[in-house]
Amino acid sequence: MPLLFHGSEAMTLGVELELQIIDSKTKDLAPGSPKIFEKEVRRDMEKQIGTIEEIGKDLGFEFASAGSHPFARYSDRIPYPAERYTYLIDRNKWMARRLMIFGVHVHVGMPDAHHAMAMNNAMMPYLPHLLALSASSPYWQGKETGLASSRVTIFEALPTGGHPCTFQTWNEFETFYDSMIASKSITSIKDIWWDIRPHPDLGTVEIRVCDGLATLRETVALVALVQCLYSWFDRRFREGERFSPPSYWILRENKWKASRYGVEAEIILDSTGKTNLLRNELETLIQKLEPISESLGCPEELSDISRMLHYGLGYERQQRVYDKEGTFLAVTESIVQEFKRREPLFWE
């Protein structure tokens, strides 16, 4: 049956931040969300952060934003008391219990289903770029993983998480969705946790591949990059260009490279196996998008991507602190302080 897409105003933006709630004394994760939500947190991102910081201070909590907590153990966590989370843990057992990870999701408004599928496919080659820029989970349960982003590897264990299935048309996606519902593999679109997905209920394409970025300034820069990319795709689409998703092996391999090496990954550019350093690809991309950022009124925000590349990304800064201090407590304290500062440590 048709999957109704509730179209929204084109290219509008919505951002979800998954914050770490940290005990002010121990620096471990703390089950503070029920107490905080009782205080009616506002939606506006800047105002919301200030509000929850004031609430958290009174309750003995601090906050951080990164793909993983450096030393907390998922076995010690208390799930938020909601029916949906109870269902997910019951269905997915140990795999769901391990989801002690934190990301940033960016929604972009789409006027209709067919436009959404085109824009979904257009963004797929750039998912490694977004992952590498946001990568901030090199440590997991007190272990050095050797990865820039360990968060994405945890999500991939879920049957409907990780790499997206690819479709040429919205009708193909509808057929897939109907089969998943009929087989009870999912109960709604919310059970599809791909790195990118159409979200028909909200009328958006939702990018889910990103780790939580340590600072608001970096988050805004990443959102500006997403906005510029979609504006670029939209213009090309309206001029008659059509977008096909990349080959699945390229999609999978490039994601692995970005999660392992961050911006130093050699990503695959085409089906012949041609590669280039992701850092170089990003620098070229930023230059290409500069005129679009001017038209959208976000040139300063986009230029912060270049600053991130120059001064060091989240995973690099965490590694820098660990190399100097030698403790995961020091790493945790650094991401707490960065969140408070709203911009990264080590920036000039």
Protein described:
The protein has 348 residues and is an alpha+beta fold. It folds into 2 domains: 19-64, no CATH class; 77-339, Creatine Kinase, Chain A, domain 2, CATH 3.30.590. It is 48% helix and 13% strand. The protein is built from 14 helices and 12 strands. The protein has helices spanning 33-37, 45-59, 83-92, 94-97, 113-123, 127-134, 151-155, 170-182, 216-238, 248-261, 278-296, 299-311, 314-325, 328-341; strands at 13-17, 20-23, 61-64, 103-109, 139-140, 143-144, 161-162, 193-194, 196-199, 204-211, 266-268, 275-277. It has a 4-stranded antiparallel sheet with strand order 1-4-10-9.
Topology diagram in text:
Blueprint: E1 13-17, E2 20-23, H1 33-37, H2 45-59, E3 61-64, H3 83-92, H4 94-97, E4 103-109, H5 113-123, H6 127-134, E5 139-140, E6 143-144, H7 151-155, E7 161-162, H8 170-182, E8 193-194, E9 196-199, E10 204-211, H9 216-238, H10 248-261, E11 266-268, E12 275-277, H11 278-296, H12 299-311, H13 314-325, H14 328-341
Parallel strand pairs: 7-8
Antiparallel strand pairs: 1-4, 2-3, 4-10, 5-6, 9-10, 11-12
Helix pairs in contact: 5-9, 6-10, 9-11, 9-12, 11-12, 13-14
